[in-house]
Design goal:
TIM Barrel, eight-stranded parallel β-barrel, alpha/beta, binds 6-O-phosphono-beta-D-galactopyranose, single chain, two-stranded parallel sheet
Length: 473
């Protein structure tokens, strides 16, 4: 078995999709808290300005699965599955409700003290994302989100507070969830509202620069607080972009599209803007404002490891005609790959693509990788107190096989956390209907239901996988 003995098996959630309690104990509004579910969610994400002035019937993140109150019961179930690691995020507006305060909210800090202590009780290592789509709303409405350089300072203050507070409880940290999401869903990724008369690329890449500097500053703070005992990672929404055909123009398009997503990690891992950005920015009309010292910071404080989500590979073509037949994916649209099947939401299923992605990322960075999201969103049916989710088991089995192949190919891999190890609110649809978990939560799209937890068939399956360190899939 190529996996190391202390391979970190586990599962992942995010504060804004699980905790609920959106105003409890002094928490401020996060930008996701103004988003409705279903089709309305995409309209709101496309036009956040309008969404801010609209009252919707239901905001799923307000209650989510109430993890804020049920975390003890839920972590006990994770421990029963044998989790070695549990990925969650800290809600920034629980710690700094508006985002620009000088003093943190003690009640918010206390919650994560208790949560991480509960993990420790079972020997589960927390893996903590500092910012998972929930920048404080106030920083968007008052400061314009990450387009404003002031956010670097606010984020740095927040990062310092939590890194210091949890230094004895948390070793693994991620600075931004799916940092490249900024380019695709700028409101989610950066609290950005972009006017029609603006050069959207200019706004997005400027905000990206601010996040990259902020990420380096968090890494700097981490090293000052806890030296090498902290492991700091970046996080990418990954998935290799394949060329539609062997036509050289399609191949070149794939090179460009891959660069666009790897751009963030190129900076965070190698410490400088790659040379291809010169031409890319010129063609996009992007002229970045940088301050003295930015370059040095980026150079000096690179990440220790590279984490990523993987749901699907992507397909691109140089021929715009081909885009008449595209399909959904994790925020990125892709052409339909005739060799692949897709989930109920149109996300194409490509286990071998995971091996391709891992090999290419490792070749590119030569740093340890960590798969921190992977899984199948599906409609589950609760019957006789369980869900027969063989489709989920099949999906995961095939991906884990390819993950192990990649490790055998020579890729260094720290661990694997499946996405949504307990059902939670979907980021893309805002619904409960799209479920990923090993644990079913009795709550529907409108927020109805008892909230009771039920083990799905995949629960025992994953337990066995962990117990045998991946030998029995
Ligand atoms: C990633 C996010 C997660 C998560 C996942 C699945 O983009 O980091 O927050 O939700 O995708 O996406 P969805 O919930 O839209 O199915």
């Amino acid at each position: 078995m190529p996996l190391q003995k202390d391979f970190l098996w586990g599962g992942a959630i995010a504060a804004n999709q699980a905790e609920g309690a959106y105003k409890e104990d002094g928490k401020g509004m996060a930008l996701v808290d103004v988003l409705p579910s279903g089709k309305q969610r995409w309209d709101a994400l496309a036009n956040p300005n309008k969404a801010l002035n609209t009252t919707y019937d239901h905001y799923p993140s307000h209650e989510a699965i109430d993890f804020y109150h049920t975390y003890k019961e839920d972590i006990k179930l994770f421990a029963e599955m044998g989790f070695k690691v549990f990925r969650t995020s800290i809600s920034w507006p629980r710690i700094f409700p508006k985002g620009d305060e000088t003093e943190p909210n003690e009640a918010g800090l206390k919650f994560y003290d208790d949560l991480f202590a509960e993990c420790q009780k079972y020997g589960i290592e927390p893996l903590v994302t500092l910012n998972h789509f929930d920048t404080p709303l106030y920083l968007t409405t008052e400061y314009g989100g990450w387009r404003n350089r002031k956010l670097i300072g606010f984020y740095e203050r927040y990062a310092k507070v939590v890194l210091e507070r949890y230094k004895d409880k948390v070793k693994y940290w991620l600075t931004f969830n799916e940092i490249n999401m900024l380019l695709h869903i700028p409101f989610f990724g950066g609290g950005l509202m972009i006017g029609e008369d603006e050069n959207a690329d200019q706004v997005k890449f400027q905000a990206a620069h601010h996040q990259l500097v902020a990420s380096s500053l968090a890494t700097k703070a981490a090293k000052e607080i806890n030296g090498e005992d902290f492991m700091i990672g970046c996080m990418l929404a990954a998935g290799e972009v394949y060329p539609y055909s062997c036509h050289p123009e399609d191949m070149m398009k794939a090179v460009h599209d891959n660069r666009k997503q790897y751009f963030f990690i190129d900076v965070q891992s190698r410490g400088e803007y790659p040379s291809y950005t010169n031409r890319m920015f010129k063609e996009l009309g992007v002229d970045l404002e940088m301050e003295q010292g930015d370059g040095e910071l980026l150079k000096q404080y690179t990440v220790d490891f590279i984490s990523f989500s993987y749901y699907s590979s992507r397909l691109t073509s140089a021929d715009p005609e081909k885009y008449k037949d595209d399909t959904a994916g994790n925020a990125f649209k892709s052409l339909k790959n005739p060799h692949l099947e897709a989930s109920e939401w149109g996300w194409q299923i490509d286990p071998v693509g995971l091996r391709v992605t891992m090999n290419n990322m490792y070749d590119r960075y030569q740093k340890p990788l960590f798969i921190v999201e992977n899984g199948l969103g599906a409609v589950d049916e609760l019957k006789d107190g369980t869900v027969e989710d063989d489709y989920r088991i099949d999906y995961m089995r095939e991906h884990l096989k390819q993950m192990i192949e990649a490790v055998d190919d020579g890729v260094e891999l720290l661990g694997y956390t499946s996405w949504g190890c307990i059902d939670l609110v979907s980021a893309g649809t805002g619904e409960m209907k799209k479920r990923y978990g090993f644990i079913y939560v009795d709550r529907d799209n409108e927020g109805n239901g008892t909230g009771k937890r039920y083990k799905k068939k995949s629960f025992d399956w994953y337990k066995k996988v962990i117990e045998t360190n991946g030998e029995q899939l």
